[in-house]
UniProtKB/TrEMBL annotation:
Residues 299-401 form the Cytochrome c-type biogenesis protein H Ig-like domain. This is Cytochrome c-type biogenesis protein CcmH. TPR repeats lie at residues 167-200. Residues 118-275 form the Cytochrome c-type biogenesis protein H TPR domain. InterPro entries: C-type_cytochrome_biogenesis, Cyt_c_biogenesis_CcmI, Ig_CycH, TPR-like_helical_dom_sf, TPR_CcmH_CycH, TPR_rpt. It is found in: Cell envelope. It comes from Vibrio thalassae. The chain crosses the membrane at residues 89-110.
C-alpha cells in the first residue's frame, strides 16, 4: 500500500512540473520592438520620399510635413506601454491555484471513485489467509461465518492468481465452492488440483464430489471411476462409500446403496452417532425396493465391464446365482437396467426362482452375469457374460463381463 501512495505522489509531482515548465517557458512578447523597428523604417522611407518630392517641387513646406511625421511616431509609443502593462501577469499567480486544483482533483476523485476502502479490505483479507485456512481445515466447533467464507474465497483467488501451481490452494477453493453449492467453481478448482497432483487421494475424492454434482452423465461416470479407484486403496475414506451409496440411491440401484451403507456401518461401529442415520437410510432403500432384504442371507455382486465390450443402449443386465457345482438352473436371479459400470447389486431370498429352495439354503454358490441384448432370456447368441469364482453367502463377489457366447 505504501508503494501505491508513493507512486501517486510521484505522478502528481510530474504533472505539476510539466505545468510549471509550460508557464515558465511562455514565449516573450516582442510586438513592441517589432513595431518600433517598423515605425523607424517607415519614418526613414517617408523622409526619403519627401526629399524627392521637394526636389521635384511637389512639396511647399517640407519642414511641416517632417514635424507631422515625427509626431505620429511619438503618438504610437504610449499606447504600446499601456498594452504591455495590461498583459503583465505573474506565472506564480497561475501556477499556485493550478497545483492546488491538480492535487484536490487527483486525490478527491480517487477517494470517491477509486475504492480505497475496498482495496484496503482486500489487502487485509489477503494477509489473513493463513488464519482463515487453518480455521477451515481444523473444523473447529464454531463454524465459519458467511463473511469469513467470502473473505477466504477472495484471499484464495488472489493467491492462486500469482501461484497457479498451488494444488492445496485449488483443493481448498474447491471445498469452499462445494460447501456453497457452486458446481462450476468447484469442478474447475478440483480439476486444476487433480491435474497438479493426480495421485493424491484427497484431491481425487474432492474432484469426484464436484463431478457428482454435475448434471452431465459423463462427469458422473468419471466420478464413479475415481471413487472405484479409491476403493482399491489400502485405506478407504468413509466419504467414498457415502458418495457411492448416494449415487446408487439416486440411480435407483437400491441394493447397491444398501451394500455401501452397510459397509459404512461396519467401519464406524454401533457406538457412532451416525450408525442410526445409516440404518434409516438402509430402511428407506428397502422400502423403495418394495420388500425387505434378509439380513445375513444375501450376496453382493460387484460387476465390471471389460473395455472391449460393446453394449447396445437398450440392453438389460441379468444376474443369476447358481449352486457351486455349476448347475445351469439358477436358484435366484434378477433383471436390472443396464446402468453404468462398475456397479454393485445385492440378491437375497426375495430373488429365489424355485419353490422350496431359497438362496439362503446354499452352502456354496457361483454368480453369472449376462448382458441381454434382445430382451429374450431364452436366446444368448452374441451376448456378453461373466462368471465368478465359488463363494458363500455374505461374501462380496466380483464378476467381470469379458466373454461372449
Amino acid at each position: 500500500m505504501t508503494l501505491f501512495w508513493i507512486s501517486t505522489v510521484v505522478l502528481v509531482l510530474v504533472a505539476i512540473a510539466l505545468l510549471a515548465i509550460t508557464l515558465s517557458s511562455k514565449k516573450a512578447n516582442n510586438d513592441e520592438q517589432l513595431r518600433d523597428e517598423l515605425n523607424k523604417a517607415f519614418y526613414k522611407d517617408r523622409l526619403s520620399e519627401l526629399e524627392v518630392e521637394n526636389e521635384e517641387g511637389l512639396v511647399e513646406n517640407q519642414q511641416d510635413l517632417i514635424d507631422d511625421l515625427k509626431q505620429s511616431l511619438l503618438d504610437d509609443i504610449p499606447q504600446q506601454k499601456v498594452q504591455k502593462d495590461n498583459v503583465n501577469i505573474s506565472p506564480m499567480a497561475i501556477l499556485v491555484p493550478s497545483v492546488a486544483l491538480v492535487v484536490i482533483l487527483t486525490y478527491g476523485m480517487y477517494m470517491h471513485f477509486g475504492g480505497a476502502t475496498k482495496v484496503k479490505n482486500w489487502q487485509e483479507v489477503t494477509a489473513n489467509l493463513p488464519e482463515l485456512s487453518k480455521k477451515l481445515m481444523a473444523g473447529s466447533a464454531e463454524p465459519m461465518t458467511e463473511d469469513e467464507m467470502q473473505d477466504l474465497t477472495l484471499a484464495l483467488r488472489t493467491r492462486l492468481h500469482y501461484q497457479k501451481d498451488d494444488a492445496t490452494g485449488w483443493l481448498l477453493l474447491g471445498r469452499i465452492a462445494l460447501a456453497n453449492r457452486d458446481v462450476t467453481t468447484a469442478t474447475d478448482a478440483m480439476e486444476k488440483a487433480y491435474r497438479l497432483t493426480p495421485n493424491d487421494d484427497d484431491v481425487k475424492l474432492g474432484y469426484a464430489q464436484a463431478l457428482m454434482m454435475s448434471q452431465d452423465e459423463m462427469d458422473n461416470n468419471r466420478a464413479r471411476g475415481l471413487l472405484t479407484s479409491l476403493i482399491q486403496e489400502e485405506y478407504v475414506d468413509l466419504r467414498v462409500f457415502s458418495l457411492l451409496a448416494f449415487d446408487a440411491f439416486e440411480r435407483e440401484d437400491f441394493p447397491g446403496a444398501i451394500r455401501y451403507w452397510s459397509i459404512m456401518q461396519k467401519m464406524i461401529g454401533p457406538e457412532d452417532s451416525r450408525y442410526e442415520m445409516l440404518s434409516r437410510s438402509i430402511e428407506s432403500a428397502k422400502a423403495r425396493m418394495g420388500e425387505p432384504i434378509v439380513e445375513g442371507k444375501s450376496i453382493a455382486v460387484t460387476i465390471s465391464l471389460d473395455p472391449e465390450v460393446r453394449v447396445p443402449q437398450d440392453a438389460a443386465l441379468i444376474v443369476s446365482v447358481h449352486p457351486a457345482d455349476g448347475s445351469p438352473m439358477p436358484v435366484a436371479a434378477s433383471r436390472y437396467p443396464l446402468g453404468t459400470f462398475p456397479r454393485t447389486v445385492v440378491l437375497d431370498d426375495n430373488n429365489s426362482m424355485m419353490e422350496g429352495r431359497k438362496l439362503s439354503s446354499l452352502d456354496g454358490l457361483i454368480v453369472r452375469v449376462r448382458i441381454d441384448s434382445d430382451g429374450n432370456v431364452a436366446t444368448r447368441d452374441g451376448d456378453w457374460f461373466g462368471e465368478s469364482q465359488p463363494a458363500k453367502l455374505g461374501d462380496t463377489v466380483e464378476v467381470s463381463i469379458n466373454q461372449q457366447y
